[in-house]
Amino acid sequence: MSDRAEGADGPxxxxxxxxxNPGPSYSGHRHNIGYLVAEELASRMGSGFRAHKxxxxxxxxxxxxxxxxxxxxxVIAKAxxxxxxxxxxxxxxxxxxxxxxxxxxAIHDELDIPFGTMxxxxxxxxxxxxxxxxxxxxxxxxxxxxxxxxxxxxPGRQEVADxxxxxxxxxERKEIPFQVDAAADAVETLIAEGLxxxxxxxxx
Length: 204
Known about the structure:
Number of domains: 1
Largest sheet: 7 strands, mixed
Helix content: 25-40%
Strand order of the largest sheet: 2-3-4-1-5-7-6
Number of helices: 7
CATH architecture: 3-Layer(aba) Sandwich
Number of strands: 7
Distance between the termini: 39 Å
CATH topology: Rossmann fold
CATH superfamily: Peptidyl-tRNA hydrolase
Strand content: 15-25%
Shape: globular
Structural class: alpha/beta
Order of helices and strands: HEHEEEHEEHEHHH
C-alpha cells in the first residue's frame, strides 16, 4: 500500500501506540510491555510492521474486529526512538493520518497498578512516565486514551529506573502472555464499544 493511500481515511482512523524502547537489549524489560501488546495486535491483523515514510516509527495498518465484521481502520505504531523522545515520532503520525488525540490509544507500563491488572482511562497526567510525558508535550494535551498495564512497584529499595529497565521475573514471565492478550482485548473493545464499556469490562 502506498503512503498516499495510508493517509486517505482521515478522521475515521484510530492510532494505537505501543510505548517502549527499540532494540533487543530492551525487549524483555517491564518498560516495553506496550511494544508486546502492539505486536500482539499486529499479529491479530495478520500483518508485520514496516517503516513509515517519516522514518521515525514502524506501523501496521488494517482493521481490528471479528471475521466478517471488520471494525474501523486502525494504525498500530511503535516509535523507533527511545521512550523519552517518542512524542515527536507519534505526533508526526497523528498529523499524517489526521488522527485527533482522542483517537489515540497509548499502551504503557504503570507502576501504581499491581502486576497482572490494568486500567483504561482517557486523559490525565504522566505520573513520571517518560513516554507519556513526551506524548503530552508533543500533543499539547493529555487527552488521549491510555491502556495502563500494571507492573507494580519495585521491591525493597530498588530504584524505579532500574526496576522498569529490567526483565520480568521468571514467575512473571509465565503470566506475560495472558497480560498481553488481555491488554490487546481491551484495545479492541475500546475501539469497538467505547471507553465506558471497556472500563467496566477490564478495569481491575
